[in-house]
Structure to design on (690 residues):
């Protein structure tokens, strides 16, 4: 492999047939399992080195569960998660033990949604950002101080803040602290779960710019989990859309927004209200609600809400297939439907 | 619409929170009108006072919050039966918040659609009991009649099988249905003004689209006015006729929706519109940002509250004096020294 010329970008992470089921138990002492919540059900995607993959969907679609499996905060029920080490060797994250995960942990880091809940109020900035350094064997305090100051500078905070506590900072600044902590162990993959949705509009843009700038400077790879399609479009190279635990569509961002192939993606795009009163948007033909992953419908999970559903959709689950190069979709009628996207 | 007197007129409203550490001037002189059949959008970031304004109008501001000045003029329609439309204007700030008149207005004439549909309903009473209770409080209706009204309301807001839903608890409904039930509750007394406080922030995009469409339809049917409070500029653009932009307790700019989005005058409005990633914008391009962050309400800057973050701030002017809200061409009102030199009288 090593002496072959690399034509296609190498995936840093390749997830294959990932499943995560949560048991539904009865309340009694026996804790009898009466069902399964299929939070993530046969999900496959890959992330190339240096790119940003967006994972979008409505609440309960399994996007957060999938990202937590990648972090191994959850142990998947089944499936493979192949992570490429810096020396090009592959390791299956799903099979690693706690001990085996330790060297990987520093390479996969997380940025959290809530900048208030994710920082310990009793720790100073130096302790918060310095802890990953200490865990990775940087024992010398002076060395650590230098590195923390450097990290703070990297995320646009003044190094004088070292001895302050998180309460002294605004939401946007706290999010910067969280980013500095994630970057402390020089990760290669950063999982960002809704990193700007808790921030004010005027601060969101700052954090998005910072994430883009850091990616360019440090060659980071992002798995970007979000529900806001405008934000996703702004930051992601490719986008994966999930619905009730399954992937319905994956494509390059421009392609997905311009020419969606799955009716659910098209409905999502149409539902986003555009900040322009002259453009009519924010409307949707969809009826009803997202079904529960504990009790999904038969056939295609989207068929009860789909305006294009035919009899086949009610019985036969669609196969997730590549319809044009790089564009994956799971819909029986993907070839014939002409769906409307948004102007790019 | 201009010749009619407004349904609600908020004049120089001030609502302060008196804390041990000092006074937080959450709303510091806010003025706007709402006309019948109009959708007024109030947009602003956290801490701008949009929710406090709404609470002041409904007189549900909790201690240590207090209305410290200004007027909230509510145009009360006379009794609908005798035909003579006695128009009476009451100043809501003068009413006892727990008194009979205020209780009749709140819920009966001005209704609220709260942000969190989960916490707005009691989990230990059925949807039907809560709806029927609200109907019977404000209307002279018997139990059976109120029940029928409740069923009709649930049907109006698009809830399938309304007869059965009456005996459901709020936690048995999905997010979208719960939001619809809340809207039914708010509509139960045929209010003339609906205040929707971030009604769709807790729901998903497809549900949001359904709820927005429902609100548009109901508004057209019933000709009620809506005050739509949100931080989502997209929702504002799609819903509102007239927009009020707030920042740190003050109105920065107000005007018809098209002017606000296509000819914004205040630097804050301009910067805000530039900084949002749009579904139609070019990907991976650096977004123009507003530098800094929103100041803490305890140390509000002197002068124009936006001047420390403003690119066009004028030294010695914007940091010393606070501009007044003045009409600037057409129907737009702006509080910025770039357009006029009128100072706000405190």
């Amino acid at each position: 492999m090593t002496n072959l010329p690399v034509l296609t970008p190498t995936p840093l992470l390749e997830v294959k047939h990932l499943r995560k089921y949560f048991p539904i138990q009865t309340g009694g002492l026996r804790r009898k399992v009466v069902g399964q919540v299929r939070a993530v059900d046969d999900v496959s995607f890959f992330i190339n080195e240096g790119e940003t993959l967006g994972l979008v969907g409505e609440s309960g679609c399994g996007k957060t569960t999938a990202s937590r499996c990648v972090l191994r905060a959850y142990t998947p029920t089944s499936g493979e998660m192949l992570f490429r080490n810096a020396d090009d060797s592959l390791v299956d994250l799903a099979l690693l033990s706690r001990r085996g995960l330790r060297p990987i942990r520093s390479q996969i880091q997380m940025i959290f949604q809530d900048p208030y809940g994710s920082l310990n109020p009793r720790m100073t900035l130096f302790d918060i950002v310095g802890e990953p350094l200490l865990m990775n064997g940087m024992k010398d305090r002076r060395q650590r101080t230098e590195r923390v100051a450097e990290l703070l500078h990297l995320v646009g905070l003044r190094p004088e803040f070292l001895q302050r506590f998180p309460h002294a900072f605004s939401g946007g600044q706290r999010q910067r602290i969280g980013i500095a902590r994630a970057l402390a162990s020089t990760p290669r993959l950063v999982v960002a779960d809704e990193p700007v949705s808790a921030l004010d509009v005027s601060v969101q843009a700052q954090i998005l710019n910072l994430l883009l700038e850091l990616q360019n400077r440090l060659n980071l790879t992002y798995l970007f989990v979000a529900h806001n399609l405008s934000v996703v479009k702004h930051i992601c190279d490719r986008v994966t859309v999930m619905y009730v635990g399954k992937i319905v569509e994956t494509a390059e961002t421009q392609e997905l927004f311009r020419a969606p192939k799955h009716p659910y993606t098209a409905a999502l795009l149409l539902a986003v209200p555009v900040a322009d009163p002259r453009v009519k948007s924010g409307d949707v033909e969809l009826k009803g609600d997202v079904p529960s992953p504990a009790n999904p419908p038969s056939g295609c999970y989207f068929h009860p809400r789909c305006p294009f559903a035919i009899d086949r959709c009610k019985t036969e689950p669609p196969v997730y297939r590549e319809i044009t190069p790089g564009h994956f979709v799971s819909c029986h009628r993907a070839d014939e439907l002409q769906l409307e996207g948004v102007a790019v | 619409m201009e010749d009619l007197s407004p349904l609600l007129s908020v004049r120089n409203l001030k609502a302060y929170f008196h804390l041990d550490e000092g006074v937080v001037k959450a709303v510091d002189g806010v003025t706007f009108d709402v006309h019948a059949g109009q959708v007024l959008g109030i947009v602003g970031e956290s801490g701008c006072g949009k929710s406090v304004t709404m609470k002041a109008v409904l007189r549900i501001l909790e201690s240590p919050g207090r209305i410290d000045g200004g007027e909230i003029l509510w145009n009360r329609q006379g009794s609908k039966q005798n035909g003579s439309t006695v128009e009476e204007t009451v100043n809501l700030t003068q009413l006892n918040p727990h008194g009979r008149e205020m209780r009749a207005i709140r819920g009966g004439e001005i209704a609220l659609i709260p942000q969190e549909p989960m916490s707005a309903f009691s989990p230990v009473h059925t949807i039907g009991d809560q709806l029927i209770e609200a109907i019977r409080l404000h209307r002279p209706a018997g139990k059976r009649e109120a029940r029928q009204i409740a069923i009709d309301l649930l049907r109006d807001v698009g809830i399938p099988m309304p007869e059965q839903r009456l005996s459901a608890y709020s936690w048995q409904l999905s997010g979208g249905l719960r939001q619809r039930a809340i809207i039914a509750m708010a509509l139960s007394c045929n209010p003339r003004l609906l205040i929707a406080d971030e009604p769709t922030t807790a729901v998903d995009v497809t549900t949001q689209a359904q709820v927005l469409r429902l609100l548009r339809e109901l508004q057209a049917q019933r000709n009620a006015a809506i005050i739509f409070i949100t931080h989502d500029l997209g929702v504002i653009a799609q819903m509102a006729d007239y927009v009020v932009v707030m920042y740190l307790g003050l109105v920065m700019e107000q005007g018809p929706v098209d002017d606000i989005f296509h000819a914004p005058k205040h630097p804050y409005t301009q910067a805000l519109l530039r900084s949002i990633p749009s579904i139609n914008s070019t990907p991976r391009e650096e977004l123009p940002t507003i530098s800094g962050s929103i100041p803490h309400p305890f140390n509000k800057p002197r002068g124009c509250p936006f001047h420390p973050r403003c690119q066009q701030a004028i030294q010695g002017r914007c940091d010393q004096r606070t501009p007044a809200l003045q009409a600037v061409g057409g129907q737009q009102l702006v509080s910025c020294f770039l357009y006029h030199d009128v100072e706000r009288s405190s």
